Amino acid sequence: MPLTISISLVLALIAVLAIVGFFIGRARAISVANGVESSLHSLPKQHGMHVVLAASVPALIFIILWSIGSGIASNSYTASIIDPNAPELQLSADVTDGLPQDEIDVRLAAQRDLFVANVKGLAVAIDGYIANGNATEADVEGWRVDFTPLAQRLRDDGQIIGANISQKMFETALRLRGFNATIELIGRLGAVFLAIGGFLYGLKLINRDFRARISVERWILAFLIFASTIAILTTVGILSAITFPTLAFFKEYGIFNFLFGMEWAPAGDVAGAPEGPDGSYVSALGFLPLIWGTLYIALVALLVAVPLGLSAAIYLSEFAPSALRATIKPALEILAGIPTIVYGIFALVTVGPFLQAVVGSTIMPNTVSVLTAGVVMGMMLVPFVSSLSDDVINAVPQAMRDGSLGLGATPAETVTKVILPAALPGIVGAIVLAASRAIGETMIVVLAAGALSSVTGLEPNPFGAVVTVTTRIVAVLTGEGSGFDSIDVLAVFALAFTLFFVTLGLNLLAQRIVAKYREQYD
């Protein structure tokens, strides 16, 4: 195996060069100025900071880019060293007998993917054993002869290899391990040399006329621009991850069949799936029943959250003493920090049984229902609506309050006739943002709205269970799906894609409303 250098050692070296570079750079700048700092274009500490940036930033960027590139190179190398004639990549005649060629090609591709995954997993496992001191290179050589100790160790550690370890698999994993170690060594040595080069270059630039301050500000500006684009890049990444499976689903199932279908019954749920002309089960994957359940629960949540949250905001901003406000507002906002899974458990074990006891088991046969999920979700949204509405109400100019009271209006009339109309755009924006939050909620609806796998039509009963978009996504991607190429699994990408644009539209609407409000009062 080639020499290896720990990434932590590389990062430590870069940190040391940066720290030392600051003090040496500052001292060198003072020396160049002969102790007269006013003769320098930039302050000595700015020269030192420039050395810090020159020694660290290019090396860190190189490490990030090399890590991405090394992963791509490793995948390409793995594909190139796979022997297509290996026995593990062949299908027996019993398996292929009577199958069409396209089905054989699909199974061969799956066999190859499994072999590649096993090779990568084996290489990573061996590296981990050696890095942790649980194995030596001598042990690896011994495993060439007898795989039993390695297989037993993998089983004991919970490692899963999709097939028995073979000689071809083991030898390929060792070649991949050697290649990965080599490119990691090259990358880390490159980062070290780049850090040293940047350190020396930064010191070389120090003179009376060097504009270190401008250079440092440009580094900072570049970082701020990068940081500001992270959200955009994240959005693009999320959208691209769900777009291609969605397009494949639309091509196979039809976009109008999906958007306007009134039935959701995956073929995997045989009891609810419809039968095709040949008697086989087919999937009915209509979007409307799911978005109906999602919007229904969100509506109930808003009916709970908006009156309570807005009333709390009015009291805290207009009527509560300052000491009481300083106590109640933080206590109210504690609700926003409770994990949603806790809300879901609360709905399942407390709110659901309570509602069933109040209305009776005849009207509400199950504790999971639209009302259960909506009430608890509304409680979760109360601090959200309250905090945003409180900020909006406090932004209304005090002169409007004083003018209303000066004309003889009561405090209640001032609130209802002056403050709320003036703050209405911001309040509406807060409600729309809360609605967007409710539509995207997952854990509460998973535990409290029902776990139906199929539904037909739009359920109007608030005491009945419904199926939501997020519930189906969680159910399919955590075990109910039959494979990422099946129509049932591709459908959840279409659900995520559509829900993304629903919430995006609500967020854009809220931002537009808030922007108009700010233009009026800023």
In whole angstroms, the N-to-C terminal distance is 65 Å
Low-confidence stretches: none
List how many beta strands DSSP finds: 3
How large is the count of helical segments?
18
Strand content: under 5%
**Helix content percent band:** over 70%
Largest sheet: 3 strands, antiparallel
The strands making up the biggest β-sheet line up spatially as 2-1-3
Structural class from helices and strands?
Answer: mainly alpha
Q: What average pLDDT do the residues reach?
A: 82
Sketch the topology as an H/E string, one letter per element. Answer: HHHHHHHHHEEHHHHHHHEHH
Describe the global form: flat
Rg of Cα set: 32 Å
Write the layout of secondary structure elements.
Layout: H1 7-32, H2 44-81, H3 93-96, H4 101-131, H5 137-145, H6 148-156, H7 167-204, H8 212-253, H9 255-260, E1 263-265, E2 284-285, H10 288-319, H11 322-333, H12 340-359, H13 370-394, H14 398-406, H15 411-439, H16 443-448, E3 455-456, H17 469-480, H18 487-521
Antiparallel strand pairs: 1-2, 1-3
